[in-house]
Design brief:
2 copies of one chain form a homodimer. Chain A has 8 helices and 6 strands; from the N terminus they run H-H-H-E-E-H-E-H-E-H-E-H-E-H. Chain A is α/β, with parallel strands linked by helices. The interface between A and B is large, with 58 and 58 residues.
Chain lengths: 198, 198
């Protein structure tokens, strides 16, 4: 006998739509929701709607914001360095470390012909325009470490041929605190190629 | 610089409140929500409120239902066998297998003095009352396999001293399809103790 009420089934389906959440976890989460006070669930529901309604892409850098312009763009309007990332959440580790004082630009992904993502699906034309029009001295290409990210960085580099802007990418090597024994081949290759004198 | 809008932070906090969801997963889910169309998020939000409002405990068996009385209680009102489980979702594997045709009773947990859960925090008194008043012939105690579950089963057994009702519990042993090499000691102990003649 199907013992789950229809509204519970619907909620399981919604949880199962989330990335990385399988059917079993979705069921566990939905049953958990039913054990919580109605006010608590209503607060969760309104947090969902609130975030969805208020948060949008910053018109300058395409990071998520609830302001007209994001706080970083507003604060660093004269930045001479621009860090290009794939997605909004990639900005967090930079700001946590505090190492970078420039502005950001969220590309919205990387070029991937197999997935039908070309330069037009990304904010690439706007990036090129901005670099050409503004007084940008350094462009840090901080786009993941996939082959697609590498070729996107290469394409950006080519599109800026003749433009006087320094292009850099993040160093590749052994991450802090990792055991050498468990480092994968590609990382080891990159770390060895990029070895520096003591 | 804190780059996350307040409404995004609030949503991350709500996801992180869910059991088994850490801060990193919560952030990933919240960022995912921001990439979805507003209508889709509104549907998720209303599924939450809908389930929370419509679903309640069945007054007879305490399983989750959106009816006055749950479909199983309504269908098996004359059942002579009652299966006692800890929580509502424990009913699913029984109904999936189709092996049990009786009614259920959700205890709401097991006795755990360390967590302050005594017989009064559970539906134990109601269970005893129901067994005494109704024509129940067999009580299947299908509580988990923790020491607390074992002592709760024992306590139910004692509370029914003098009542003419057969009490059973589920068999313990090697689950189907499992590799003997990876069976834990306690399961092996129970499986060996409970070995049967061919």
């Amino acid at each position: 006998m199907n013992v789950e009420p229809q509204s519970l089934e619907a909620l399981i389906g919604e949880f199962a739509n989330l990335p990385g959440i399988g059917r079993k976890t979705a069921r566990r989460l939905a049953y958990h929701i039913l054990t919580r006070p109605k006010e608590e669930v209503a607060q969760f529901a309104s947090a969902l709607e609130n975030a969805s309604e208020k948060v949008h892409a910053c018109p300058r850098c395409f990071s998520f914001t609830d302001q007209d312009i994001c706080p970083i763009c507003a604060d660093r309007i004269d930045a001479h360095a621009l860090c290009v990332v794939e997605k909004s959440s990639d900005i967090l580790p930079f700001e946590r470390s505090g190492i970078f004082k420039g502005a950001y630009f969220v590309l919205g992904g990387v070029i991937s012909p197999l997935d039908g993502i070309g330069p037009e699906q990304l904010h690439l034309p706007l990036l090129i325009k901005r670099v050409k029009e503004e007084n940008i001295e350094e462009l840090v290409l901080a786009l993941g470490s996939s082959p697609e990210a590498d070729s996107t960085a290469l394409m950006i580099d080519r599109m800026l041929d003749g433009v006087n802007v320094k292009r850099t990418r993040l160093a590749r090597g052994i991450p802090m605190g990792s055991d050498l024994e468990f480092v994968d081949e590609i990382t080891m290759l990159r770390a060895f190629e990029g070895r520096v004198s003591l």
